[in-house]
Amino acid sequence: MSESTATQNSSARNKHCPPPPRRNSKNCGGGGTEYLDITKEEFERIEDALKKEEFRKLFFEYCEEIQDPENRKLYEKEIKQFEAERGVDVRFINPEPGFVIKTSEDGVTKCFINIAKSAELTRPSNKFCLNPETG
């Protein structure tokens, strides 16, 4: 990745996107506010893996396999069992489609916001606060 591309990707990710959610053993997927905290080295390892043809091929095969409901149930069962051995309670949340909002950034870059729903999650709330740091 060129330096300018890396800079663009980094600034876009930091400026416009919150970090992805982190698994919380007490409240897996239950609307927690914690975030995935990976090191630069871990990010680079993922990035390097995705550059390899063989890894991408295996990853896409896996994605196709889990599209089959029976395979998906088996994988979820195995993951739950593995994580339970480590003391982590795992819940899988399968959201139902809602709708899509199409917008743009500065009238130039298209942005699609997918809205989904699940009875497993708490309802969103809107709370007014004068100081976002303290509430």
UniProtKB/TrEMBL annotation:
<feature type="domain" description="PIH1 N-terminal">
    <location>
        <begin position="66"/>
        <end position="128"/>
    </location>
</feature>
<feature type="region of interest" description="Disordered">
    <location>
        <begin position="1"/>
        <end position="32"/>
    </location>
</feature>
<comment type="similarity">
    <text>Belongs to the PIH1 family.</text>
</comment>
<feature type="compositionally biased region" description="Polar residues">
    <location>
        <begin position="1"/>
        <end position="12"/>
    </location>
</feature>
<dbReference type="Pfam" id="PF08190">
    <property type="entry name" value="PIH1"/>
</dbReference>
<protein>
    <submittedName>
        <fullName>Protein kintoun</fullName>
    </submittedName>
</protein>
<dbReference type="GO" id="GO:0005737">
    <property type="term" value="C:cytoplasm"/>
</dbReference>
<dbReference type="InterPro" id="IPR050734">
    <property type="entry name" value="PIH1/Kintoun_subfamily"/>
</dbReference>
<dbReference type="InterPro" id="IPR012981">
    <property type="entry name" value="PIH1_N"/>
</dbReference>
